[in-house]
Amino acid sequence: METTPNFRKIIHVDMDAFYASVEQMDNPELKGKPVAVGGSEVRGVVSAASYEARKFGVRSAMSGYMARKNCPELIFVRPRFDRYKEISKKIRKIFYEYTDLVEPLSLDEAYLDVTENKKGNPSATLIAQEIRKRIFEEIGLTASAGISVNKFLAKVASDYNKPNGQKTINPEEIIQFLEELDIKKFYGIGKVTAEKMYQSGIFTGKDLKAKSLDYLEEHFGKSGTHYYNIVRGIHNSAVKPDRMLKSVGAERTFNVNLSSEIFMVEKLENIANELEKRLKSYKIAGKTVTLKIKYSDFTLQTRSKTLPYFIADKALILEAAKELLYQEKMKDSVRLLGISLHNLNTEIKKTIAVQLRFDF
After folding, report:
1. 221 and 259 housed in the same domain
2. Which of 11, 101, 266, 267 is the most exposed place for a label (fewest CB within 10 A)?
3. How many domains does the chain have?
4. How are cofactors bound according to the entry's free-text note (predicted)?
5. Is 172 a catalytic residue?
6. Chosen domain end from 65, 81, 97
């Protein structure tokens, strides 16, 4: 039987319907009801959906119109990112009581390397149970967790018993688990890639494993090597506590399409103000300003400008955004504007993780 040598103990914690759950926790009238954070029945896109809403097919990134069509009783709630960030900090504080090797992926999920941990607990499974219990008792929200020997497997496992559950993939179970797993459940394989794999006769991990490295590279390019490794339980990426932030942005979808640059500048002022707040909270600045424009026909356009110095001030951000706005004539009315900063002045720090053999 194939096994993967030299294991870490990795936990992936994923909050259950985080934004929607926070709204239901703060407003008891929303408990047990289908809730969509963001969007509206007329405009916008759903940022998150409660499990009650998901039963009707409501999903994140779905238009508000389609969400309402799927679920007539859906309740739309405006997002409160400051509140979500506040809760996220409390959750991470719990994580850091167990290990300093915490890699946040977003406000609602993170990897933890507990190979060696502050509690001296040899069981990653028990640590995950304790963390989930504390999040529920101290904050009032439920979380799911996946536990295994690397980040890829932990991420796949965390989705296995959602919501409010956890799954451990022990070292001796890895190969069989992956062989039986539907290819669409492999983290990182999206709908387009899954469809391409189906057309190639790849429906399960076992089918994927049967394909040679040459075949996978020929049909899936550079990703072929990644697929070849992960189906064998090989994924050597360490938990990076100082994971580099690549960009910070803010955007707005409008109730009425904008056809005049004068009105767009007014909206950009508000967006630049929000972006400044986010940059200050991260204590960073950036050199490249990108203006995002979504037209009424949903086509997307981006325009970028790189400055010779770092900026984080809203006036400078707005100045660059306005220059990009007037760079060329608008081809249609606009339904969304966004500004983001790239080339940030963050430092990349490397973490060397010790690999040990252990029992889960």
Report:
1. no
2. 266
3. 3
4. Binds 2 magnesium ions per subunit.
5. no
6. 81
pLDDT value, residue 143? 98
CB atoms within 10 A of CB 299: 10
The answer on 337 and 256 residing in a single domain is yes
Residue 271 and residue 206 share a domain: no
Q: What is the pLDDT of residues 188-227, one digit of tens each?
A: 888 889 999 999 999 999 999 999 999 999 999 989 999 9
Say how many C-beta atoms besides its own lie within 10 A of residue 220's C-beta: 19
Segments forming the whole domain that contains residue 37: 18-81
Identify which of 62, 40, 42, 60 has the alpha carbon closest to the alpha carbon of residue 50.
60
Q: Are residues 223 and 253 in the same domain?
A: no
Starting at the edge strand found earlier in the chain, the sheet holding 48-49 runs 48-49, 35-37, 75-77
CATH of the domain at 35: 3.40.1170.60
| 167 Cβ neighbours under 8 A, 6+ residues apart | 145, 146, 147, 157, 158, 160, 161
Residue 14 assigned as binding residue: yes
- From the candidates 52, 103, 109, 276, give the one annotated as an active-site residue: 109
269 with 321, same domain?
yes
Residue that terminates a domain, selected from 192, 209, 235: 235
| Domain identity same for 257 and 226 | no
* Residue located via tokens 């006036």: 315
108 is in an annotated binding site: yes
Rounded CA separation 280/287 (Å): 15
Whether residue 51 lies inside any domain: the answer is yes
Asked whether the beta carbons of 47 and 39 are under 8 A apart, the reply is yes
Count CA atoms within 13 Å of residue 291 on its CB side.
23
| 145 vs 155: CA distance, rounded Å | 8
CA distance 19 to 27: 12
257, two tokens: 């399409």
